[in-house]
Amino acid sequence: MGHATDALDTEGPTAAGEPPVGLARARGFAAAVLRGQAQVTFLPSVAAGAVFCAALFAAGWRYGLYALVGTAVGTATARLLGADRDRVTTGLEGFNACLTALCFAVFLGADHLSTALLAIGGCVVVTVVTAAVVQLLGVWGLPSLTLPYCLVASTTTIAAPGFERVWHHGEALASLTRAATGPTAPRPVELAKGFFADFAQIFFMPQWYVGALLLAGLLIAGRRTAAVACLGSAVGIATAWALGAPAAQIADGTMGYNSVLVALALCGVFLPVRAATLTYALVGAATATAVGAALSALFAPSGGHTFTWPFVLTTVVFLAGAKSFPRLAGSGAPAA
Predict the structure, then answer these.
(1) In terms of Cα–Cα distance, which of 30, 24, 136 is closest to 91?
(2) pLDDT tens digits, residue range 166-179?
(3) Contact 55/217 with Cβ under 8 angstroms?
(4) Taking the chain, what is the end-to-end CA distance rounded to the nearest angstrom?
(5) Beta carbons of 177 and 300 less than 8 angstroms apart
(6) Tens-place pLDDT, residues 35-73
(7) Mutual orientation of helices 257-264 and 223-243 as an angle, nearest 10°?
(8) What 3-state class would DSSP assign to 13?
(9) What are φ and ψ of residue 187, in 5° steps?
(10) Nearest 5°: CA angle at 128, between 123 and 133?
(11) Of 81, 114, 160, 276, whose CA is between 20 and 30 Å from 102?
(12) What is the pTM of this model?
């Protein structure tokens, strides 16, 4: 798949009962694209990817389309450049492109032709950036995570107001940081919405029902995976509340989505599932909540956004630290 020496003949079945080569390749590519969407939460699952795709279309057909096409562009670019076959097949070359395309749609405006063209170009570029980051972090045995997407997304959104054909929102979003204001005690309904919105905000969506669908996709992949993600969300909410975050930010999921990703990464993906790693992961989830507030303040004067920077930085530090703690050591899933 993706090699110049692959057979080009798409006429007829290759053997009795087998589908035509072209159809088999199309199915394989479609599966890789769906796995790419699921890999945003570390799942090489076609079924979970299909549910994630449905969730994004439920948020808005434009967002669903951007995510689907973006993942396809990233996957196709990796294939054409001859990336490792296993990485392409398991979706590891698609998830950063998925997030990149969604980022452009949300922050630059999904209705503009310039946004669509930039999203396609961004998905090509992030594939190259992914290869570079994998090589650099691989020296220390660390995964690339969503660092490639964060680099491309931050660069683009900070630079966008400087280009009239790209920026369609009038004034730039740069602003000085301000102290938190508003009620800090979320009502039960806000807590419930915030719990599900934590999952939705991974894909920039604030709707609680989108998060519920994404959680359903995690459940399809495995109850243990979903349970760890739920604990990450709960810890993120609890940490934000304990520190006095505005209830509105807890309810819309912006305080907890990085915690979900950190919990998943540190318990079951890159570290084995055991009591020690679960505790370690939940400490990491709490840490990511505080790191998120710090990075929001850091990026605000430039008009930038936190994206999944808190998840990337927290996870890389905790994974590097885990190498010194024998009780946490063990073989997890391959680096993403």
Answers:
(1) 30
(2) 888 777 676 656 76
(3) yes
(4) 20
(5) yes
(6) 999 999 999 999 999 999 999 999 999 999 999 999 999
(7) 140
(8) strand
(9) -75, 165
(10) 115
(11) 81
(12) 0.89
